[in-house]
Amino acid sequence: MSDDSRPSPSAAPSAGRTAAVIPAAGRGVRLGPGAPKALRALGGTPMLIHAVRAMAASRAVSLVVVVAPPEGAAEVKSLLDAHALPERTDFLVVPGGQTRQESVKLGLDALPPGHDIVLVHDAARPLVPVDTVDAVIEAVREGAPAVVPALPLADTVKQVEPAGAPGEPEPVVATPERARLRAVQTPQGFDRTALVRAHETVTGDVTDDAGMVEQLGLTVVAVPGHEEAFKVTRPLDLVLAEAVLARRRLNDGF
């Protein structure tokens, strides 16, 4: 991919297009020392490339904005240039901020007009199936201001009083009803106006963009997620991701 071989993402697209923002500026300390998490290899290819391809696999996605480490934007752009990516999709790399929230905001600021639906996807979820991406987009098209893919919980969850020091016992204060709980994944999908307003007005600590939209009083809906859309955070997750990728290549020619 080169600047000459692709249309400029600044050209005004047709109304109603979908763009994906992938914040990839974090270090991923739980995976240990080395390259940033998004640049760790999975099946010989950086996780970031897998994540970008997962978004571009949806024919509804016409632009992918990768938010790179502030000092590594040129490296990330070279990485995208070096890998085969769908010709129908435009790509843009912008420097990120010090937090995920700042990075998503910088990615939003870089979007050209005409992209009315915005996906926000974790670079550390490299194997999300295209059917999940399309389901999120379709729910936004049907009128939901914010959509999250989510899975029922397999484990019972306990609410605890945090211990005073690491390793100390923690008193259990409640057992939430598991049937009403979901584990949320990405990509999360948004009406662009709602997401921009959330990033302009919500300033507190949040764990995901849907939580910011919730604070505006808007409805967030969940669609079925997928077990292969897990987040690669720990070394064990990387082992599982390698196994999933190997199965795909064997069975599906992925």
TrEMBL record:
The record marks 30, 37 as: Transition state stabilizer. The keyword Ion transport does not apply. Pfam families: IspD. It is an enzyme of class 2 (transferase). Keywords: Isoprene biosynthesis, Nucleotidyltransferase, Transferase. Pathway: Isoprenoid biosynthesis; isopentenyl diphosphate biosynthesis via DXP pathway; isopentenyl diphosphate from 1-deoxy-D-xylulose 5-phosphate: step 2/6. SUPFAM superfamilies: Nucleotide-diphospho-sugar transferases. It catalyses: 2-C-methyl-D-erythritol 4-phosphate + CTP + H(+) = 4-CDP-2-C-methyl-D-erythritol + diphosphate. Gene3D superfamilies: Spore Coat Polysaccharide Biosynthesis Protein SpsA, Chain A (3.90.550.10). One of its GO terms (molecular function) is 2-C-methyl-D-erythritol 4-phosphate cytidylyltransferase activity. The record marks 178, 231 as: Positions MEP for the nucleophilic attack. Catalyzes the formation of 4-diphosphocytidyl-2-C-methyl-D-erythritol from CTP and 2-C-methyl-D-erythritol 4-phosphate (MEP). Belongs to the IspD/TarI cytidylyltransferase family. IspD subfamily. PANTHER family: 2-C-METHYL-D-ERYTHRITOL 4-PHOSPHATE CYTIDYLYLTRANSFERASE, CHLOROPLASTIC. This is 2-C-methyl-D-erythritol 4-phosphate cytidylyltransferase.
